[in-house]
Amino acid sequence: MTGDAAKVLADGRSGGGPVARYSERGLHGQTVQEIARRILTGELRPGDTIDLAALGAELDLSLTALREALKVLAAKGLVASRQKRGTFVRPRSDWSLLDPDVIRWQFANRNDDAFLENLAEVRGIIEPQAARLAALRRTPEDLAVLDAALTAMHDANGDPALAVAADLAFHRALLTATHNELLERMEIVIEVGLAERDRLVHGVRRHDDPVPSHRAVLDAVRDGVPGRAEEAMRDLLAKARRDLDTVRED
């Protein structure tokens, strides 16, 4: 494996990419995730007041520790505190739905296909046009990162964790190659959701080799042919949908 490809995989495994998740390690992180889970599943509904004393007793937490966890969720728009009212769950319209942790927590607590369908629709709107722009604007540095990601994908040899890391690196690099700051920020939606989708597909069964479809996109971007890059990305997304449908049928 080349040094660049190894770095791609190391970054993917360590969370070193731009969309690093909130740490769930330790009591604080676990508390944040547990309260988020209750909100996102509707166990705590918008408008509900959170009984801090009861929740602290249930989770065996001090009031200070509980309040520190709630500060994290307040920053993500899930809860708020008011005098006389106390701490309560904010309306869904106030939640930071593009926050990578909120996206991941929602997916982890969903047992239907709506999230993946939403993700597929968003990718279908964004990524073909991103490929088109990348074909027009890519730099030698962009192509080097895309090449490293494709090499890492090839070298994953069926390892689900390595395959996911390489896939994320490729799509992140493609967005970066557009040199459009707003499109680059769409990685928040695409990367977190794509990681969960990939874990389903790569973790359940062996599927068709992903390298050829990604190579077709990269070749078109390298050749500077925007229409071909867009079409190659549409073909890649269609294959991704077929892979997911196969997993659902199993």
Automatic annotation (TrEMBL):
SMART domains from the UniProt entry: FCD, HTH_GNTR
- Domain of life (superkingdom): Bacteria
Enumerate the spans annotated as HTH gntR-type domain: 25-92
Keyword set for this entry? DNA-binding, Transcription, Transcription regulation
The record's InterPro entries line, in alphabetical order, gives: GntR_C, TF_FadR/GntR_C, Tscrpt_reg_HTH_GntR, WH-like_DNA-bd_sf, WH_DNA-bd_sf
Tell me yes or no: is Transcription regulation among this UniProt entry's keywords: yes
- What Gene3D superfamilies is this protein classified in? GntR ligand-binding domain-like, Winged helix-like DNA-binding domain superfamily/Winged helix DNA-binding domain
Q: Can you say what this protein is called? A: FadR/GntR family transcriptional regulator
Q: Which organism is it from?
A: Actinomadura vinacea
